[in-house]
Design brief:
alpha/beta; 8-stranded parallel sheet
Length: 326
């Protein structure tokens, strides 16, 4: 399994900043130590043209040139710097690379060791998100699918499964008039953002939600999402696997255990594997009181994703053997 990263591109944030920048390096090191079969690859940055598939040119130019206003920087939560721009571009590039590997390179499952920047809109950043990695990657994969297959094949339909504790408001807004992308967001009702956007399917959870009701809700919404896409099933999924529903998260407000989150991941990967839908996974939020706990949640997501990747590879080999025998 391929896992794309930008671990060396770290923002130097002011002392006391609430964003746990160290978690990306720690996750990279944890994967190297405990999941050696996961191949870690440094991603190339997204180009200006790729970003323009989901973002307005004026926003891209302001970020690239450092002309974002003080108010825009406050909404993002990061001060502007060339390193901020480089990291944002590489975070998008990692999800692009993961999606391309999952969809076109017969990987089936691939990951971004960061990403999940779902609060970024077409025209602005927000909530620690500068560019929307899933939106850019989805649009780019649809473009590449059309280029490869032409008009003789139906276009690529995409399913965004966003299980970060915060609503994927930027993603919902970008795809609000796009029937080729189905957006699912299951999140805390009273959590950021205060003003939610309308996804194709939103599920709002009460503060203190624990494993059993969470998993029951997940089963319902996965089934409903698939039913609503039955006439035109997705050919690619993006799984935004936030660690912030964990009970130890400073910002999450939910009460899922380690095992509850692992079971969440198993159920998502199992559904996608059963239907043969390739998936690009991104880590998204995680703000644990103990950063090591957040890193372990992310690491287990990747371990479960690796198990799904192994099943995908076995399925691919059986397909090849069957075709050869025929």
């Amino acid at each position: 399994m391929l896992a794309f990263h930008s671990a060396q591109f770290v923002l130097h944030l002011p002392p006391g900043h609430s964003f746990p920048m160290d978690k990306y390096r720690l996750l990279h090191d944890a994967v190297a130590a405990t999941l050696p079969a996961v191949r870690r690859v440094e991603a190339a940055p997204a180009s200006e043209g790729e970003l323009a598939l989901a973002h307005e040119p004026g926003w891209i130019e302001a970020v690239f040139n450092g002309t974002t206003s003080a108010a825009q920087q406050r909404e993002i939560g990061f001060p502007w710097s060339p390193r901020m721009v480089e990291r944002a571009r590489r975070s998008v590039g990692s999800t692009v690379s993961a999606a391309r590997a999952a969809l076109f390179a017969d990987e089936g499952v691939a990951a971004n060791l960061a990403g999940g920047t779902h609060h970024a809109y077409a025209h602005k950043g927000s909530g620690y998100c500068v560019f929307n990695d899933v939106a850019v990657a989805a649009r780019l994969m649809q473009t590449e699918w059309h280029r490869r297959h032409g008009p003789q094949r139906h276009g690529l339909r995409v399913w965004v499964i966003d299980l970060d504790v915060h609503q994927g408001n930027g993603t919902a807004h970008i795809f609000r008039d796009d029937d080729s992308v189905f957006t699912l967001s299951m999140h805390g009702e009273r959590n950021f953002p205060l003003r939610k956007e309308a996804s194709d399917l939103d599920v709002e959870l009460p503060d203190g939600c624990t494993d059993a009701p969470y998993l029951a809700a997940l089963d319902r919404v996965l089934a409903e999402s698939l039913a609503r896409q039955s006439a035109a099933p997705p050919g690619l999924a993006f799984y935004v696997a936030g660690a912030d529903p964990h009970e130890g998260d400073r910002l999450g407000r939910l009460k899922l255990t380690h095992e509850g989150l692992a079971e969440r991941d198993r159920r998502v990967f199992d559904v996608l594997h059963r239907l043969g839908i390739p998936v690009a996974v991104s880590m998204a939020g995680g703000y644990g009181r103990d950063t090591a706990v957040t890193v372990e949640v992310h690491r287990r997501t990747l371990a479960i994703g690796f198990d799904s990747w192994q099943r995908w590879q076995r399925w691919q080999r059986r397909q090849v053997a069957t075709e050869s025998a025929a």
